Amino acid sequence: MKEILLHHFNNLKNTPKTLLLTYIIVYFTWGLGMNAFGAEMEIARFTYWWQVISCYILYMVPISILLKEYSFFNQYAYGLVAMGILEFLGYWLQTSYVYPNNILDKLFSPQNFSLGMALFFALYFPAGNWLVNKINGVLFKK
């Protein structure tokens, strides 16, 4: 177990600074946009704006970096576990606010809301890794 954790820590530590900066900018922008969209559409939002930093940068960026070498399916599957935990804790701790009778509740039912959110947001890992790779490749060609 120690070797696995050390390997993952080294992967994070050895991530090029330009790649890390690209991840941070992309995920921060993405997080602000999705939080604003969720609030505007009255679906869900963070209780505090700075949760974009804790969720998107401090939680999702390291996970994305660790998953970037995996296939699309494996990134999605591992991402689903990560997002399931994040969604569960967000609603349980009430750090995320779900608007009552929102469009997703009406479409899928309130009982399926957090599952739907986890299924959707798990796509961030393969999509985010693809997007960051493309942007980083354009900005920092070798």
Question: Count the strands?
Answer: 2
User: Which spans have pLDDT < 50 for at least 5 consecutive residues?
Assistant: none
Strand content: under 5%
Helicity, as a percent range: over 70%
Strand order of the largest sheet: 1-2
Structural class: mainly alpha
Explained architecture:
This is DUF2809 domain-containing protein. Keywords: Membrane, Transmembrane, Transmembrane helix. The chain crosses the membrane at residues 20-37, 49-67, 76-93, 113-132. The chain is mainly alpha-helical and 142 residues long. It has one domain. It has seven helices and two strands; from the N terminus they run H-H-E-H-H-E-H-H-H. It has helices at 2-13, 17-40, 51-67, 72-92, 103-108, 113-121, 124-139, and strands at residues 44-46, 96-98. A two-stranded antiparallel ribbon has the order 1-2. Helix 2 packs across helix 7, helix 3 packs antiparallel against helix 4 and helix 4 packs antiparallel against helix 6. It is globular. The mean pLDDT is 92.
